[in-house]
Write a structure and sequence with these properties.
It is a single chain. This protein folds into two domains: about 10-170 and about 355-365, 3-Layer(aba) Sandwich (Rossmann fold); about 180-350, 3-Layer(aba) Sandwich (Rossmann fold), CATH 3.40.50.2000. It is about 40% helix and about 15% strand. The chain has helices at about 20-35, 50-55, 70-85, 95-110, 130-140, 150-155, 205-220, 235-245, 260-265, 285-290, 320-335, 335-350, 355-365, and strands at about 10-15, 40-45, 60-65, 90-95, 110-115, 140-145, 165-170, 195-200, 225-230, 255, 270-275, 295-300, 310-315. Helix 5 links the parallel strand 5 (about 110-115) and strand 6 (about 140-145). It starts with 8 loop residues before the first strand and ends in a 5-residue tail after the last helix.
């Protein structure tokens, strides 16, 4: 704990460098601590998107490589940073960082809050999984799970000696610009119906299903477009682009790459489309609700995150099932229920998933007195 009269300093640690949900929360908490009158110092593993965002927010940071299963040099460098910066609290994200900071917590007795963002953090295939979780249990004062489902998985797949019993704190989003978007019904007659996907192109997002859905709509004479926003440089994205070309859908499917203007993206689409095979609590889901966009989704876990009646769910992971769900969405849109549901979704996000709510929940865990 900080000594009386001493400004608390929170060290924020993550071992990834690119854009994503965990990284966005990492930045929001680091910036939020500063807004609340504390000092924030960040520790990242290398250059990239996260570093650029830290620069834009004027958050001081260190870069230290943490490659290897137990990098003692990295561990000693973390201890050095803790002493140099007079760190009073540590906030870490994802399995690797959680293990290292928990060891630091054991050595220094500083309070550590370790956050798990997805099931990949606790995969049964993870090397020395239970030993790592046991270290986290011993060295962290608080363990956080971003969803109830992830918490249950952690508790049900670990033995008593490494069971973490995490606190659930859902990821929060910046609502300031999303709330300004108008509450609209579906696209106007005569113009394309625009679907949007937001998230890096990777297997779990199952974007080939989204492309197949657009192909089905086209074959049924529906003028539809798909805009995919997210990293599209990896091999899976390259193969997907080839498939779009093979199906002659280049005029229907647009790859935007990584975007900074999320409100602008939602302002350009009519329906938010989620074709994922599995999800935890994607920020894009709550961003779409805050933007007052109808959500067409497979059953992938998001139905356990927000009330089902706020979503239009396909019963199967097929293009035909998505089409059936779209018909239900269009039927609702013809009445007044549509705008009422979209307004309800926006309010639900504000009450439960705003950045302000998330930051306060973490601050309560830290136990830092108001500055």
């Amino acid at each position: 704990m900080a000594k009386r009269g001493m400004t608390p300093t929170v060290l924020h640690v993550i071992d990834t460098t690119g854009p994503g949900g965990a990284e966005t929360v990492f930045l929001a908490l680091a910036e939020g601590c500063i807004k609340q009158g504390y000092r924030s110092v960040a520790l990242i593993r290398g250059p990239g998107w996260v570093e650029e965002q830290l620069k834009q927010r004027s958050i001081p940071y260190y870069i230290r490589d943490c490659k290897g299963s137990l990098n003692l040099k990295f561990l000693f460098e973390v201890l050095s940073i803790v002493r140099r910066e007079k760190v009073t609290h540590i906030q870490s994200h994802l399995l690797g960082s959680n293990v290292y900071t928990s060891i630091v917590g054991l050595i220094t007795r500083l309070p550590v809050t370790a956050t798990f963002h997805g099931h990949v953090d606790i995969s049964p295939d993870e090397r020395f999984r239970n030993a790592k979780l046991a270290l986290i249990k011993m060295g962290s004062r608080h363990v956080v799970s971003v969803t109830e489902d992830l918490k249950n998985t952690i508790n049900h797949t670990t033995g008593s000696y490494c069971r973490l019993h995490p606190t659930v704190i859902p990821n929060g989003i910046d609502l300031s610009e999303l709330e300004k978007l108008p509450v609209n019904t579906l696209g106007e007659p005569g113009r394309p119906l625009v679907f949007g996907c937001l998230g890096n192109v990777r297997p779990a997002k199952n974007y080939p299903l989204a492309v197949e859905f657009i192909r089905l709509l086209k074959s049924n004479g529906i003028n539809a477009r798909l805009r995919i926003a997210g990293d599209d440089t990896k091999s899976g994205a390259i193969e997907l682009k080839k498939e779009v070309a093979r199906l002659e859908l280049e005029d229907n499917v647009e790859f935007l790459g990584f975007i900074d203007d999320v409100p602008g993206f939602f302002g350009s689409v009519d329906v938010f489309l989620m074709t994922s095979s599995s999800e935890g609590h994607p920020l894009a889901l709550t961003q779409a609700l805050a933007a007052a966009k109808p959500i067409l989704s497979t059953r992938n876990g998001v139905e356990r995150v927000v009330p089902e009646h706020l979503l239009f769910l396909a019963e199967e992971h097929t293009a035909a099932s998505l089409f059936a769900a779209l018909e239900k969405l269009q039927a609702v849109t013809e009445g007044t229920e549509s705008s009422e549901r979209l307004v309800e979704g926006r309010k639900y996000v504000k009450d439960n998933y705003s950045e302000e709510v998330m930051r306060q929940r973490y601050t309560n865990l830290y136990g830092i007195e108001a500055v």
